[in-house]
Amino acid sequence: MDLPPNRKKSPLVEVAWDGPIVQIAFAGPNIGQRETPIIQEDIGPYLKLKTIKFLVLDLSAVSFMSSMGLSMFIGARNAAAAVGAQPVLYGLNKDLKSLMAMMKMDKLFKVVDTQADLAKLLGK
Fold first, then answer.
1. Which of 19, 73, 89, 97 has minimal Cβ neighbours within 10 Å of its Cβ?
2. H-helix or E-strand containing 82?
3. What pLDDT is attached to residue 57?
4. Whole-prediction pTM
5. What CA–CA distance (Å, rounded) separates 54 from 23?
6. Which DSSP category does 113 fall into?
7. What value does the mean pLDDT take over residues 19-48?
8. Angstrom distance (rounded) from CA 71 to CA 94
């Protein structure tokens, strides 16, 4: 299997892969029906890496997520779990945090609010 590049930037997502950590920052403001398949194609190769211990999904720039976006996140979480990585949600605004709690997705992910807490979790 060819390894993906350590950094990848597209209009919708920026991926940084550093050994045990894959960080995916979404451009936002929406993750909807149009954006989801494009993002899935961009991040797919990173979700198959067997070396990762953490999959950090950075939603700092996102204000809305459709049901397709939510299902993509569940797929990313399942892919992370398949390789033994902990899925982490970071940078959720108040509305997204409420949505994740309502959908019980906060049980599937480690939710981190601050950069300091994220650094601590990742051992940085």
1. 19
2. helix 67-82
3. 97
4. 0.95
5. 8
6. -
7. 95
8. 20
